[in-house]
Design goal:
heterodimer, A: alpha+beta, eight-stranded mixed sheet, two-stranded antiparallel ribbon, 9 helices, rod-shaped, B: 51% helix, elongated
Chain lengths: 285, 204
């Protein structure tokens, strides 16, 4: 009777001992440990700094120019549709007008033979209607699609309207200033998405309305600290979690230290390893 | 006792001969066809004895009412016509389209033209297939990146992970204006179009 009780007691004590050990480790932990509403970040002995970053895209405003193959195919489709269709009322009236004119201009034209209604009609040919419509269309001025001058300025959000653009900001990471997606360290008591939103609002001079697409991160970039930093601060490395957002509302005016960059231009601004991690979730959308 | 018996007999008589008018009952007419006639009439029941207070047959008005309602129901059923089905406009070919005069003359395509068309269609299907495969691959890569991020987050902190996988109620309804051919004109006031609405409205 007493033996199993002793065993159980022993087991309980062992568990308590383990718990107290880990608690002791926590108590002696260094700066990298964070608490989130009572929960404990794992790997307390080898902490990683968490950062939230916002991947903000201004989506395309106008359609892309057609490739030659696409242009040829759309032309073929229109041709085939026309061949297989019936004539519309407009086309029939065009034919009627032609027939009537031909009859009038015939040598043996007898106006009495013409039907009453047709004779008294004022000739408003369908062709005239078409010309009037075309004149009206020419009178309407549209905005130009290609604007070379604007496209060259990288800080403008309304450049390259046919392609989606990504927002980059210049930030200090360690000793150097780099072009990155806006990011900021995570603080206790907030979710990573809130961190990303804070990172965006902390960008100086940027007045933007965005919609964040969901609560989950879309990508991750992590790197280990060099040994000296690791030993000095007890920080193993940094994990940056990216959250996708889309610009809604009016386009913002240019802001200092922020760029709107196309996918093809990203390699000029971002480090290769960073770009490699970002590229999958950009999706060119 | 005999009075009661005579009364009972009288009642039974009355019930049997409901269709016959009362006047015959009082006169003891021998032309009655009731089976009780020979035996009961010899009882010498007089009119005052046979007179009973007129029973207000409560069943009668109710029966009349019920009969009237039944007739009404039958009438209604006969009048009820199944509702006419609303025709589906899209399934009815308008007679304008069946007009022979609207047909175009069949163009005789030369061999080169038909070849060009066939080759272009094949090239297009190859292009579209490649585009689709590329899209699927891109989507899979993006999903992998997200999965990796969520796994790392789970290792870091359970609470943050749970907050991340919670659905966001503010995202939907999500709307975004798609790309047009030309950029929008700043401060452009589109004119209202004139139209006559001729859609047919059916009622049942």
């Amino acid at each position: 009777m007493s033996a199993p009780v002793v065993k159980m007691a022993g087991r309980c004590f062992y568990q308590l001992y383990k718990l107290s050990n880990s608690a002791g480790r926590l108590a002696s932990g260094k700066t990298g440990i964070r608490q989130f509403s009572g929960a404990v970040v794992q790997n307390a002995a080898e902490p990683w700094r968490l950062l939230g970053a916002a991947c903000v895209q201004r989506l395309a405003v106008i359609s892309v120019d057609q490739r030659p193959l696409e242009a040829k195919f759309s032309e073929l489709m229109n041709q085939m549709e026309l061949e297989r269709s019936l004539m519309s009322d407009h086309e029939l009236s065009l034919l009627d007008d032609k027939e009537r004119l031909r009859r009038r201009q015939a040598v043996d034209y007898d106006s009495d033979e013409e039907e009453e209604a047709d004779r008294d009609q004022d000739i408003v040919l369908t062709q005239d209607l078409e010309d009037a419509w075309e004149q009206r269309l020419k009178g309407f001025a549209t905005q130009p699609r290609a604007r070379g001058v604007v496209d060259a300025r990288l800080e403008r959000a309304d450049r390259c309207l046919a392609e989606p653009l990504l927002l980059l900001t210049q930030q200090e990471v360690g000793p150097e200033r780099l072009w990155l997606l806006p990011q900021t360290p995570w603080e206790a008591g907030e979710t990573l998405k809130t961190t990303a939103q804070r990172a965006l609002s902390a960008t100086p001079g940027l007045d933007l309305q965005t919609v964040f697409l969901g609560n989950a991160p879309c990508g991750l970039y992590k790197y280990r600290m060099p040994r000296s930093v690791r030993d000095r601060e007890g920080l193993t490395g940094v994990k940056v979690f990216f959250f996708k957002a889309v610009v809604s509302g009016p386009l913002p005016p240019p802001a200092p230290s922020s760029l709107w960059v196309r996918q093809s231009e990203l390699k000029d601004y971002l480090k290769p390893s960073y770009l490699e991690k970002i590229r999958p979730f950009l999706l060119n959308l | 006792m005999s009075l009661i018996v005579s009364r009972c007999m009288g009642r039974m008589l009355c019930r049997q001969t409901l269709d016959v008018p009362r006047i015959f009952v009082e006169e003891h007419c021998l032309t009655r066809q009731s089976p009780w006639s020979n035996t009961v009439l010899t009882l010498h029941t007089s009119a005052p004895l046979r007179a009973e207070p007129k029973k207000k047959k409560k069943v009668d008005p109710k029966r009349e009412h019920v009969a009237r309602e039944r007739l009404k129901k039958r009438l209604k059923k006969m009048e009820k016509v199944p509702p006419e089905l609303i025709p589906i406009e899209d399934f009815i070919t308008p007679t304008k389209c069946l007009d022979e005069a609207r047909g175009r003359s069949e163009p005789r395509l030369p061999f080169e033209e038909s070849e060009r068309r066939a080759l272009l269609l094949k090239e297009w299907s190859r292009f579209k297939h490649a585009q689709h495969t590329a899209e699927m691959e891109a989507i899979n890569l993006a999903l992998d990146a997200q999965r990796e991020a969520l796994e790392e987050l789970k290792i870091e902190s359970e609470e943050l992970y749970k907050a991340a996988i919670k659905p966001d109620p503010l995202v939907f309804p999500f709307s975004h204006e798609g790309p047009c051919y030309t950029p929008p004109k700043p401060k452009y006031d589109a004119p209202d179009g004139k139209y006559h609405d001729i859609t047919k409205v059916y009622t049942q």
